[in-house]
Structures are given as C-alpha cells and as structure tokens.
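Problem: given the chain below (607 residues), write out its structure.
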Amino acid sequence: MPQESLKYLLKTPSKDKWKKIRTQKRAGILVPLFSVYSKKSIGIGEFRDLKLLIDWAKLSGNSIIQLLPLNELGSFFCPYDSLSSFALEPAYISLKDIPGANKRAIKTRINQLKKEFPTGKSYVDYRIKKEKLTLLWDIFIEQGQSISQEFKKFVENNSYWLNDFAFFKVLRDYHQGAPWYEWEDKYKNRSISHLDVFRKIHEKEIVFQIWVQWQLYKQFKEVKEYAQSKKVLLKGDLPLLVSRDSADVWQHPEFFKLEFAAGAPVDMYCAKGQRWGMPTYNWDKAFQDNYQYLKEKLKYAEGFYDILRIDHVVGLFRIWSIPYNEPLQNHGLHGFFDPQDENKWAEHGRNILSVMLNNTRMLLCAEDLGVIPKVCTRALEEFGIPGNDVQRWMKDWKVKHDFLKPQDYRALSVAMLSTHDTTNWAAWWENEAGTIDEELFIRKCAERGIDYNYIKEKLFDSTFSKHGRLRWLKNVYSADALVSILGKRREEIKDFIEMYENTYREKERLWRTLKISGPMQESANRQAISAILKTTLESRAIFCIHLILDWLYLADIFKGEPYDYRINTPGTISENNWSLVIPISLDELLKHRVTKEIRKMIVSSGR
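Solution.
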C-alpha cells in the first residue's frame, strides 16, 4: 500500500484499529461455516472445524478468515435474516466438546447421529439442528441445573439480550413455530404479569436456551484464541437488518418500522429490484435510547472478531423501504428511500458510523456494493473504513467501458472475485460475462413499445444465452447497429445503449486485460482462473479476500456446471440457498497440493 495512504489511515477515526492490526496488505478467504466440514463434523460445519480452517489459512498464506453471520437461523436458514443479532446458531455446536458428552450413553447417541447425518453431501440437511438440540437437552437435564460462577457471569454480561432471547425461543416453541406477531396478545405485546407466570411454568426450558448459548459462546471464544495464537484475523459480518420474526424486534419493536420491508431498487441484475422482508429501523427511537441496541451488538461481536463487515452500509445513509402490504410479486419496484430528503443522507449515515467507531475495538469494513451515493463513499474514505471492490464490476462504466487495471482499484478496499450473493467467478465467466438480464430487457422493451420477440434473434446469441441472461451477437458491432435494430431515436434508448456498451464483448475485453495468450476461451479454464486471482492479489487494495469456492477452482475438485456451485440466489427461496457444501473435507484440504500453489501466489503478490 502506498506510503501516503498508510499515513492517511493513521489520521482517520479508525487509526487505533489500524494500529492494532497493522496497515499491511493481506490476503484472506470468505467461508460460510455450513460449507466446510471435517471428519469429526456431524451434519454441518462446526465451531471446532474453524481451527482446521485457521490451520489451512496459515499454510496457504491467508491471514484473514471472513465468516458469514453465525447468528441463529430462522425458517429459511438465511444468515442475513436471523432470529437474533446476538445469539449463535446451535447447529454449529461441537457435541463432543460439551461437558458431560463423554458418558457412554451420550457418546453412543452422538455416534449414531454422525451416521444419520454424514458430512460431504452436496447440501446441508438442516434437520441436524433439531437433533442436536434434542441431544443437548438430554445432556442439560442429566447434568442437573447447578449454576456455576462462570455461567452466572455470562448471564450477567449479556443481560441486555440473553434472557429475552431465551424467553422468545421458548415462546416460539410454545406457539409451534409461529412468528411472534401471530402469538396471543398477552405474549405478543409482552404483558409483564403474563410473562412472569410463563417463566415460572417454563423456567427449565428458558434456562436451557441460555445454557446452549453459553456452550456456543465458549466454543467460539476458544476458536478466537486459537486464531490469535496463529496470527490469523477473524472477520465477522454484522447484518444491517434483522428478521421481522426475531427476538430483537419482539423485545424492541420501537426501534423498527414494522409497516415497511427493506429491499433494493431496480438495477442491471434485478429487473424488479429486491424485497428482503426485514423491517427498516426507526433511527429516531434508537437515538433517544443513546443507540444502546447497536452498542450491545458490537460489544458481543467483539468477543469473537478482529474485523467486522457492515452489511449494506449504504442503508445507514438511506434505505429502500417498501410498504409491507405491497404485493410480493412487485419485489422492490414500488419503494422509496428513507430518509426521503437526500440532503439528510450524509449526516444520518455519518452519525451512526461515528457511534459504531467509538464503541468498538474492531476494525470496521463496509459492504458498499450497488448504487452508492457519493456521501457514503466520502464518509467511508474519511473514516478509514474499507469498502468492497468486486472484480466483475471494477470498470470504467462511462467512457472506456473496460475493466480497471489492478493499480486502479481503491487502496482502501477489500478486493474480491465474488460475493455470497453472486455466482462464483467461473460461473460468471461462462454464463454472465458479456450478457444482460433478460427480464430487465423485456420490461424495458415493453416500456418503449419495442417487440421483444421480433428483435430478440437480431440482437442475441441463443447458444450462449442461458440462466436468464442474454449474450449479444457479435455482429451487433456498434451502438449505431443497436439503434437501427431497435428502431428508436438514440435519445429514447440511452439506457439500452449504456447496457450494450458495458457488456458487449466483455469477455474478450477482460481476456485482453489479463494478457492471456491465445484466443479467448469460453470455459473458465485453469489459466484464466489463475490469471484473475493474480490480478486481484496484485491490486492496490489493502485486503484481498476471495470466496473459498474461487480459491478452490484451482484444485480441480468441482465437477459439472459451475453455475450449480452457488451460496445464494437473491430474491429466491430454495433449499439450495445457504446450504452448499464444498466437495472436500478440511482434513483433505490441508494435504492438497493446491495449498502450496495458493501460498506461492499470495507470497509473490507481497501479501
């Protein structure tokens, strides 16, 4: 990183954080815990497996491990739509590490569970969560409920959220999984007298939920200590939003605007925008409470992480708000930005970021993808907070319509090939590079009175158009040719021309930028993947953190269509979302030849 940038960081509000972790270029891996496993795992990646991942990071030259949120999952198992901003997910617990698990009867049941839920399948079977909780309950009952000083201290230190979360979990079970806003009024509206009665009847179940969180806390803290001993930094992920059906919203409904659902407006990749469903924040109420809710979230996360990613950081400045009663099929079409007054965005976001910076020792990073107002970009730079530079979007969008060279990335950024919400890089190369979204194009045609079915074959190559993406025909060689085929004046179709200029022959342009010899290849071969990894490693970005899938395409372990290896497809509900498992155990990965190859690439890049 250039010396002038280093001096600049040590003068920002993040200076203490940078001094702590040092302003040096680093490489890292982005890993969903559910996507990895070891020979000891039961059904899903577990906290103990993170120690093997730390070992692999150390061997491969990576000094950062970025994890997706590990909060307790809701019905759709989405880490960004969790039941709590604090509580950890019980499915990730390592049963064999629980005190009392070494008794013969318990060991037998654990071994049986391991047979019933083998690891190494393509997708996680989340039924393992219920089975683990059943076994944990039996261990808890068998141990008796003697309260240790360590346990009491954990409860005391987390009094802000822990008791209410435990109450919420037991009440949710009592209502057979129904969301809190469908409970009986006395529980929905938190009648103190009725909750006291409920506590006396269900005290054992409530204490059990607290005990489970204590066990998870201890296991994760042990991982943090192990990472520190290996000089590997753990990077957590703080979702901006929380599920409507969460302990947070039930406990503090005043902090949320329940009449709205958060989402994102229309863009090149989502023709109708996005509707995520989580409520937006009532920041005025949070301010009146001195932002205690936000401070407590940071306090708990700080026990596990060195670095924290702020998900959808632009939402602190302004968030796309959709009326909750808007038909679901409209996705994010009919929303608005809150605050609606653009002049308030800068102060709004900067105030909240200042609160975060002043109440944590973790280095903050920001997910600043999509359409980002300049007030957000300027604030991140001034505060010393790195944003994200995703290679496929690092382009000169206005003039050259070509990819940026490594030296043109932002120095204060995290460079990457893919995110958990995109295709992996190989799938992008083979299916999306040089394409536009078909649904978006159809809608734009309808708005201008253009017959899509008539012009489709004149513009797009059916051989390379798939997965809802349209690849331009090579003989549509200029914007003038596009204008002629569409039969409209240039002024009427400026957005069509912009889409065309930024995607036409995109693959050929990137191939030239990578300086790969020979003609452009349609497949994401090893040569192309190696070249693109080196490009981001050699960028100006202070951090370069790649999705583990992108790193492991060098290992030749993925079979079939790269498009099938996807963490999440935004805007869809599928059993394949948030459940993908890589086809190699961590034990095997530690011995794989690819580890030395990755290390060589990272070391030669100076990271």
